[in-house]
Hints:
The chain is of the alpha+beta class.
Amino acid sequence: MTLNSSDFPDVATALAAKVADAAGAEAVYSLVSAAADDLIGHRLFTVMAFDAPAMQVQRIYSSNPGAYPPGVAKGKRDTWWGRHVLEEGHSYIGYDADDIRAHFVDYEIIFGLGCESILNTPVRLHGRTIGTMNLLHEAKFYSEADAPAARVLAGHLAASLITAG
Protein backbone atom coordinates (compact mmCIF):
# COMPACT_ATOMS: atom_id res chain seq x y z
CA MET A 1 0.00 0.00 0.00
CA THR A 2 1.45 3.35 -0.99
CA LEU A 3 1.27 6.39 1.22
CA ASN A 4 0.19 9.90 0.33
CA SER A 5 2.84 12.33 -0.87
CA SER A 6 2.35 14.25 2.38
CA ASP A 7 3.85 11.23 4.18
CA PHE A 8 7.11 11.56 2.26
CA PRO A 9 8.98 13.81 4.74
CA ASP A 10 8.23 11.48 7.66
CA VAL A 11 9.17 8.32 5.76
CA ALA A 12 12.33 9.92 4.33
CA THR A 13 13.43 11.20 7.75
CA ALA A 14 12.85 7.82 9.39
CA LEU A 15 14.70 6.08 6.53
CA ALA A 16 17.72 8.37 6.90
CA ALA A 17 17.98 7.53 10.61
CA LYS A 18 17.61 3.79 9.97
CA VAL A 19 20.16 3.79 7.14
CA ALA A 20 22.66 5.64 9.35
CA ASP A 21 22.45 2.82 11.91
CA ALA A 22 22.09 -0.11 9.50
CA ALA A 23 24.42 -3.05 9.98
CA GLY A 24 25.67 -3.35 6.41
CA ALA A 25 24.67 -3.00 2.79
CA GLU A 26 22.06 -5.78 2.80
CA ALA A 27 20.21 -4.05 5.64
CA VAL A 28 20.28 -0.73 3.76
CA TYR A 29 18.90 -2.34 0.60
CA SER A 30 16.09 -3.92 2.61
CA LEU A 31 15.26 -0.62 4.35
CA VAL A 32 15.15 1.29 1.07
CA SER A 33 13.02 -1.47 -0.47
CA ALA A 34 10.48 -1.13 2.36
CA ALA A 35 10.41 2.67 2.07
CA ALA A 36 10.02 2.45 -1.72
CA ASP A 37 7.11 0.06 -1.27
CA ASP A 38 5.47 2.41 1.25
CA LEU A 39 5.97 5.57 -0.83
CA ILE A 40 5.72 4.35 -4.41
CA GLY A 41 4.91 0.64 -4.45
CA HIS A 42 6.58 -2.39 -6.01
CA ARG A 43 6.19 -6.09 -6.55
CA LEU A 44 9.93 -6.47 -7.05
CA PHE A 45 12.79 -4.25 -5.89
CA THR A 46 16.36 -4.72 -7.10
CA VAL A 47 19.67 -2.92 -6.82
CA MET A 48 22.28 -3.15 -9.55
CA ALA A 49 25.94 -2.12 -9.30
CA PHE A 50 27.35 -0.44 -12.41
CA ASP A 51 30.76 -1.28 -13.84
CA ALA A 52 31.35 1.70 -16.14
CA PRO A 53 34.41 0.39 -18.05
CA ALA A 54 32.56 -2.84 -18.88
CA MET A 55 29.26 -0.96 -19.37
CA GLN A 56 27.62 -3.71 -17.36
CA VAL A 57 25.27 -3.87 -14.39
CA GLN A 58 25.16 -6.67 -11.84
CA ARG A 59 22.23 -7.42 -9.57
CA ILE A 60 23.44 -7.23 -5.98
CA TYR A 61 20.06 -7.23 -4.20
CA SER A 62 16.61 -8.57 -4.93
CA SER A 63 13.49 -8.47 -2.79
CA ASN A 64 12.70 -11.89 -4.30
CA PRO A 65 16.05 -13.70 -4.45
CA GLY A 66 14.46 -17.08 -5.09
CA ALA A 67 12.86 -15.99 -8.36
CA TYR A 68 15.17 -13.13 -9.29
CA PRO A 69 18.55 -13.79 -7.65
CA PRO A 70 21.52 -11.50 -7.07
CA GLY A 71 24.67 -12.14 -9.07
CA VAL A 72 23.21 -11.83 -12.56
CA ALA A 73 25.09 -9.43 -14.85
CA LYS A 74 23.68 -7.64 -17.88
CA GLY A 75 25.63 -5.88 -20.60
CA LYS A 76 24.31 -2.44 -21.53
CA ARG A 77 26.93 -1.24 -24.01
CA ASP A 78 25.50 0.42 -27.13
CA THR A 79 21.93 0.42 -25.83
CA TRP A 80 19.54 3.33 -25.58
CA TRP A 81 18.76 2.35 -21.97
CA GLY A 82 22.46 2.26 -21.06
CA ARG A 83 23.06 5.73 -22.47
CA HIS A 84 19.89 7.18 -20.93
CA VAL A 85 20.15 5.72 -17.41
CA LEU A 86 23.80 4.81 -16.86
CA GLU A 87 25.69 7.42 -18.85
CA GLU A 88 23.30 10.39 -18.76
CA GLY A 89 21.82 9.66 -15.31
CA HIS A 90 18.13 9.86 -16.21
CA SER A 91 15.37 7.74 -14.74
CA TYR A 92 13.55 5.35 -17.06
CA ILE A 93 9.91 4.35 -16.84
CA GLY A 94 8.73 1.33 -18.76
CA TYR A 95 4.96 1.57 -18.73
CA ASP A 96 4.01 -1.80 -20.14
CA ALA A 97 5.19 -5.17 -21.43
CA ASP A 98 6.32 -3.71 -24.78
CA ASP A 99 8.61 -1.24 -23.00
CA ILE A 100 10.14 -3.98 -20.86
CA ARG A 101 10.54 -6.31 -23.83
CA ALA A 102 12.37 -3.56 -25.74
CA HIS A 103 15.06 -3.00 -23.08
CA PHE A 104 15.46 -6.14 -20.95
CA VAL A 105 16.55 -9.55 -22.22
CA ASP A 106 15.12 -11.24 -19.13
CA TYR A 107 11.61 -9.96 -19.85
CA GLU A 108 10.06 -13.44 -19.63
CA ILE A 109 11.25 -13.80 -16.03
CA ILE A 110 9.96 -10.30 -15.25
CA PHE A 111 6.56 -11.12 -16.76
CA GLY A 112 6.51 -14.41 -14.84
CA LEU A 113 6.66 -12.38 -11.62
CA GLY A 114 3.56 -10.45 -12.62
CA CYS A 115 5.52 -7.34 -13.50
CA GLU A 116 4.91 -5.32 -16.66
CA SER A 117 6.14 -1.86 -15.65
CA ILE A 118 9.45 -0.62 -14.31
CA LEU A 119 10.98 2.47 -12.77
CA ASN A 120 14.79 2.46 -13.07
CA THR A 121 16.52 5.16 -11.08
CA PRO A 122 20.25 5.77 -11.34
CA VAL A 123 22.21 5.84 -8.10
CA ARG A 124 24.68 8.65 -8.56
CA LEU A 125 27.67 9.91 -6.60
CA HIS A 126 30.02 12.76 -7.49
CA GLY A 127 28.40 13.20 -10.90
CA ARG A 128 28.59 9.59 -12.03
CA THR A 129 26.26 6.63 -11.98
CA ILE A 130 27.37 3.82 -9.67
CA GLY A 131 24.24 1.67 -9.81
CA THR A 132 20.50 1.56 -10.27
CA MET A 133 17.48 1.12 -8.06
CA ASN A 134 14.72 -0.75 -9.87
CA LEU A 135 11.06 -0.95 -8.96
CA LEU A 136 8.78 -3.31 -10.88
CA HIS A 137 5.01 -3.66 -10.75
CA GLU A 138 1.90 -4.32 -12.83
CA ALA A 139 1.44 -2.56 -16.17
CA LYS A 140 1.05 1.22 -16.13
CA PHE A 141 1.79 1.40 -12.39
CA TYR A 142 4.55 4.06 -12.54
CA SER A 143 4.43 7.63 -13.77
CA GLU A 144 6.73 10.63 -13.98
CA ALA A 145 5.32 11.76 -10.64
CA ASP A 146 7.10 8.81 -8.97
CA ALA A 147 10.58 9.75 -10.21
CA PRO A 148 11.44 12.48 -7.64
CA ALA A 149 10.70 10.25 -4.63
CA ALA A 150 12.62 7.42 -6.28
CA ARG A 151 15.63 9.74 -6.73
CA VAL A 152 15.65 10.58 -3.02
CA LEU A 153 15.36 6.92 -2.05
CA ALA A 154 18.10 5.90 -4.49
CA GLY A 155 20.44 8.41 -2.88
CA HIS A 156 20.37 6.32 0.29
CA LEU A 157 21.98 3.43 -1.63
CA ALA A 158 25.15 5.24 -2.74
CA ALA A 159 27.34 4.65 0.30
CA SER A 160 26.39 0.97 0.47
CA LEU A 161 27.13 0.47 -3.23
CA ILE A 162 30.57 2.02 -2.76
CA THR A 163 31.49 0.18 0.44
CA ALA A 164 30.02 -3.18 -0.60
CA GLY A 165 31.72 -3.12 -4.00
